[in-house]
Amino acid sequence: MDYTTLGRTGLKVSVAGLGTGGFSRLGLGTGKDEAHAIGIIHAALDLGVNLFDTAAAYGTEAVLGRALRTVPREQVVICTKAPFAVGKPDSTAASAIASLDRSLEQLGTDYIDVYQLHGIAPGAYDHALQVLAPALLREQEKGKFRHLGISETAPHDPEHLMVQRACRDGVWEVAMVSFHMMHQNARANVFPLTRRYGVGTLMMFAVRNIFSQPGRLAATMRELATDGLVPQALADDPDPLGFLVHDGGASSVIDAAYRFVRHEPGADVVLFGTGDQAHLNSNIASILKPPLPEPDRIKLARLFGHLVGVGLDAPHLSRAGMVVKG
Ligand SMILES: NC(=O)c1ccc[n+]([C@@H]2O[C@H](COP(=O)([O-])OP(=O)(O)OC[C@H]3O[C@@H](n4cnc5c(N)ncnc54)[C@H](OP(=O)(O)O)[C@@H]3O)[C@@H](O)[C@H]2O)c1
């Protein structure tokens, strides 16, 4: 594993971080049981992953807590989030604090390393800054968490407007940001600011559905070509990113996707979400490989650098009917 420093938190974190939300939720989202989920977490630990991201909304805090029980607490970096629905900008400070206390209980820990507000839309940011952050910082003084962070709601904020404000406000030490091969605008809009202000970055959406679901990429390319946003030749190609896979290049489009994010200047931790042991192994291997060849990176920037908000799937309902954010 490679390790880096998470912005001004000073935390030493693995460059690959296990995301326990998304569509997989450690496999719980696709019908696997808790023993399977714990196996995924332990396999990640065995490969040197020390950063784990969860959220009150994911329903994975308790399983993460149980899986980490055997690990000395200081050896892992636990990130979780207060639920903060996009449509509910009036969430109260009291409910954020109650959620923090519940998260500590679910995780079975005395402190959280990075406590984040979850999916803050630009229109909710003033409330987050002026009402929620001061209340949470008082809880931080009591030792309930070490660092305050904030995650954007990618589908509703594809221009990263919220994070651009958050970087300058000095309160948030970590930001969770969407970035992938066909949604590259954080390079210009976000990373110069996170780097200037020492905000650590957790990267989400490296693969999501667009690069993992068969047919999704080709369908997206056809839509983009219809709108004149990518060359028609890409829409006509059943394997539109196949040019990335070659000797000396990527071994697959997913390999390319994780390497693309990993080596972007300003990207600290690449979160990957999976409920599959083989995917876990290959994703970590990809994240540890060198950058994609320069001609491929130039081509990706030329073909897709202008796109905004492609492949950012909105939250959905889990089988249990729970709203799964992130
Ligand atoms: N606003 C927010 O706060 C927010 C929003 C989004 C995400 N997040 C965080 O970021 C984390 C990462 O996002 P994500 O879960 O969407 O991760 P991701 O790594 O971008 O995509 C994961 C998806 O790709 C599949 N996949 C992963 N590796 C694969 C492989 N090698 N081959 C084929 N398919 C593969 C997974 O299915 P399998 O289970 O089959 O591998 C899953 O459906 C989340 O878990 C969450 O912690 C936060």
Characterise this structure.
37% of the residues lie in helices and 17% in strands. With 326 residues, the chain is α/β, with parallel strands linked by helices. An eight-stranded parallel beta barrel has the order 3-4-5-6-7-8-9-10, surrounded by five helices. Strands 1-2 form a two-stranded antiparallel ribbon. α1 (34-46) packs across α2 (61-68) and α2 (61-68) runs parallel beside α3 (93-107). The site of NADP nicotinamide-adenine-dinucleotide phosphate (NAP) has 29 residues, from β6, β10 and α11.
Major sheet characteristics: 8 strands, parallel, barrel
Enumerate the distinct ligands. Answer: NADP nicotinamide-adenine-dinucleotide phosphate
Distance between the termini: 25 Å
Overall average residue pLDDT: 93
> How many H/I helical runs?
12
Q: Helices and strands: which structural class?
A: alpha/beta
Radius of gyration: 19 Å
State the oligomer.
single chain
Count the E strands: 12
- % residues in beta strands: 15-25%
Ranges with pLDDT <50 over ≥5 residues? 317-324
Helical fraction equals 25-40%
Q: Could you give the order of strands across the largest sheet?
A: 3-4-5-6-7-8-9-10
Secondary-structure element string: EEEHEHEHEHEHEHHEHHHEHHEE
* Overall morphology: globular
